[in-house]
Amino acid sequence: MLTSRLHSPFLHCPLKLSSPSPFPTKSLKTQRSPSSYPCVRAVDLDQNTIVAITVGVVSVAVGIGIPVFYETQIDSAAKRENTQPCFPCDGSGAQQCRFCMGTGSVSVELGGDEREISRCINCDGAGSLTCTTCQGSGIQPRYLDRREFKDDD
Predict the structure, then answer these.
(1) What is the pLDDT of residues 72-101, one digit of tens each?
(2) CA 44 to CA 6: how far, in whole Å?
(3) Residues 6+ apart with CB under 8 A from 104
(4) From CA 137, how far away is CA 130, in angstroms rounded?
(5) Is pTM, for the whole model, over 0.85?
(6) Region label for 70, one of left (φ > 0), alpha (ψ between -120 and 50) or beta (otherwise)
(7) Which positions, given as ranges, span the membrane (predicted)?
Protein backbone atom coordinates (compact mmCIF):
# COMPACT_ATOMS: atom_id res chain seq x y z
CA MET A 1 0.00 0.00 0.00
CA LEU A 2 1.37 3.40 -1.02
CA THR A 3 1.37 6.31 1.36
CA SER A 4 1.80 9.83 0.14
CA ARG A 5 2.01 13.07 2.00
CA LEU A 6 0.01 16.24 1.47
CA HIS A 7 2.04 19.38 1.93
CA SER A 8 0.32 22.64 2.62
CA PRO A 9 1.85 26.02 3.42
CA PHE A 10 -0.75 26.43 6.17
CA LEU A 11 -0.18 23.16 7.95
CA HIS A 12 2.68 22.64 10.35
CA CYS A 13 2.81 18.87 9.99
CA PRO A 14 2.12 17.22 6.63
CA LEU A 15 -0.87 14.88 6.52
CA LYS A 16 -0.50 11.25 5.55
CA LEU A 17 -3.03 9.69 3.22
CA SER A 18 -4.17 6.21 4.12
CA SER A 19 -5.09 5.37 0.53
CA PRO A 20 -3.05 5.93 -2.60
CA SER A 21 -3.68 9.25 -4.31
CA PRO A 22 -5.75 9.09 -7.51
CA PHE A 23 -3.66 11.96 -8.89
CA PRO A 24 -0.25 11.37 -10.40
CA THR A 25 2.52 12.50 -8.07
CA LYS A 26 6.01 13.61 -8.90
CA SER A 27 8.95 11.71 -7.65
CA LEU A 28 10.22 12.63 -4.22
CA LYS A 29 13.35 14.20 -5.69
CA THR A 30 11.42 16.96 -7.55
CA GLN A 31 9.07 17.85 -4.69
CA ARG A 32 9.76 20.80 -2.43
CA SER A 33 10.83 20.09 1.06
CA PRO A 34 8.31 21.01 3.80
CA SER A 35 10.73 23.56 5.22
CA SER A 36 10.57 25.63 2.00
CA TYR A 37 6.84 26.31 2.41
CA PRO A 38 5.82 29.43 4.36
CA CYS A 39 4.06 28.46 7.54
CA VAL A 40 1.46 30.38 9.51
CA ARG A 41 0.92 28.98 12.94
CA ALA A 42 -1.64 30.03 15.50
CA VAL A 43 1.13 30.44 18.05
CA ASP A 44 2.77 33.06 15.78
CA LEU A 45 -0.17 35.42 16.40
CA ASP A 46 0.53 37.26 19.60
CA GLN A 47 -2.04 39.16 21.66
CA ASN A 48 -1.23 42.54 20.09
CA THR A 49 -1.85 41.19 16.60
CA ILE A 50 -5.17 39.70 17.61
CA VAL A 51 -6.21 42.97 19.28
CA ALA A 52 -5.17 44.98 16.20
CA ILE A 53 -7.17 42.71 13.88
CA THR A 54 -10.20 42.86 16.19
CA VAL A 55 -10.04 46.66 16.41
CA GLY A 56 -9.80 46.89 12.64
CA VAL A 57 -12.83 44.66 12.09
CA VAL A 58 -14.87 46.51 14.72
CA SER A 59 -13.87 49.88 13.23
CA VAL A 60 -15.06 48.84 9.80
CA ALA A 61 -18.32 47.51 11.25
CA VAL A 62 -18.96 50.74 13.17
CA GLY A 63 -18.00 52.84 10.15
CA ILE A 64 -20.65 51.08 8.12
CA GLY A 65 -23.23 50.64 10.88
CA ILE A 66 -23.53 54.23 12.11
CA PRO A 67 -24.39 55.82 8.73
CA VAL A 68 -26.89 53.03 8.04
CA PHE A 69 -28.49 53.59 11.46
CA TYR A 70 -28.80 57.35 10.91
CA GLU A 71 -30.19 56.88 7.41
CA THR A 72 -32.95 54.59 8.70
CA GLN A 73 -33.74 57.03 11.53
CA ILE A 74 -34.00 59.95 9.10
CA ASP A 75 -36.28 57.93 6.82
CA SER A 76 -38.56 56.89 9.67
CA ALA A 77 -38.68 60.44 11.08
CA ALA A 78 -39.64 61.82 7.68
CA LYS A 79 -42.60 59.42 7.56
CA ARG A 80 -43.96 60.54 10.96
CA GLU A 81 -46.08 63.66 11.14
CA ASN A 82 -44.63 66.46 13.27
CA THR A 83 -47.26 67.90 15.63
CA GLN A 84 -45.08 69.09 18.52
CA PRO A 85 -45.75 72.76 19.37
CA CYS A 86 -42.83 75.17 19.11
CA PHE A 87 -41.05 75.73 22.46
CA PRO A 88 -40.05 79.43 22.21
CA CYS A 89 -43.45 80.71 21.06
CA ASP A 90 -45.65 78.01 22.70
CA GLY A 91 -47.18 77.20 19.32
CA SER A 92 -48.45 80.73 18.61
CA GLY A 93 -45.93 81.48 15.84
CA ALA A 94 -45.03 84.88 17.35
CA GLN A 95 -42.60 86.03 20.05
CA GLN A 96 -42.71 89.13 22.19
CA CYS A 97 -40.38 91.90 21.00
CA ARG A 98 -37.31 92.16 23.21
CA PHE A 99 -36.78 95.88 22.62
CA CYS A 100 -40.19 97.16 23.67
CA MET A 101 -41.21 94.13 25.77
CA GLY A 102 -44.41 93.78 23.74
CA THR A 103 -45.70 97.35 24.16
CA GLY A 104 -44.88 98.55 20.65
CA SER A 105 -43.24 101.75 21.92
CA VAL A 106 -39.86 102.61 23.40
CA SER A 107 -39.20 105.23 26.07
CA VAL A 108 -35.90 107.08 25.83
CA GLU A 109 -34.58 109.32 28.62
CA LEU A 110 -33.01 112.41 27.09
CA GLY A 111 -31.74 113.95 30.32
CA GLY A 112 -33.09 116.59 32.68
CA ASP A 113 -36.20 114.52 33.42
CA GLU A 114 -37.14 114.67 29.74
CA ARG A 115 -38.47 111.52 28.01
CA GLU A 116 -39.29 110.75 24.45
CA ILE A 117 -41.65 107.91 23.58
CA SER A 118 -41.39 106.57 20.06
CA ARG A 119 -42.57 103.58 18.09
CA CYS A 120 -40.32 100.49 18.38
CA ILE A 121 -38.05 100.14 15.36
CA ASN A 122 -37.54 96.39 15.91
CA CYS A 123 -41.19 95.26 15.68
CA ASP A 124 -42.51 98.39 13.93
CA GLY A 125 -44.91 99.00 16.80
CA ALA A 126 -46.58 95.58 16.67
CA GLY A 127 -45.10 94.35 19.96
CA SER A 128 -44.33 90.90 18.56
CA LEU A 129 -42.18 89.30 15.90
CA THR A 130 -42.46 86.13 13.86
CA CYS A 131 -40.88 83.25 15.77
CA THR A 132 -37.42 82.56 14.36
CA THR A 133 -37.50 78.89 15.41
CA CYS A 134 -40.68 77.78 13.65
CA GLN A 135 -40.89 80.68 11.15
CA GLY A 136 -44.45 81.38 12.32
CA SER A 137 -45.87 77.89 11.81
CA GLY A 138 -46.20 77.11 15.54
CA ILE A 139 -44.79 73.60 14.99
CA GLN A 140 -41.39 72.69 16.46
CA PRO A 141 -39.12 71.88 13.51
CA ARG A 142 -36.98 68.78 13.51
CA TYR A 143 -33.28 69.25 14.09
CA LEU A 144 -32.14 69.40 10.45
CA ASP A 145 -35.22 71.39 9.41
CA ARG A 146 -34.08 74.29 11.64
CA ARG A 147 -30.93 74.85 9.65
CA GLU A 148 -30.88 76.89 6.51
CA PHE A 149 -28.05 75.89 4.25
CA LYS A 150 -27.28 78.92 2.11
CA ASP A 151 -24.61 79.28 -0.51
CA ASP A 152 -23.22 82.76 0.03
CA ASP A 153 -21.05 82.80 -3.08
Answers:
(1) 887 887 788 888 888 889 889 999 999 899
(2) 22
(3) 97, 119, 120, 123, 125, 126, 127
(4) 9
(5) no
(6) alpha
(7) 50-70
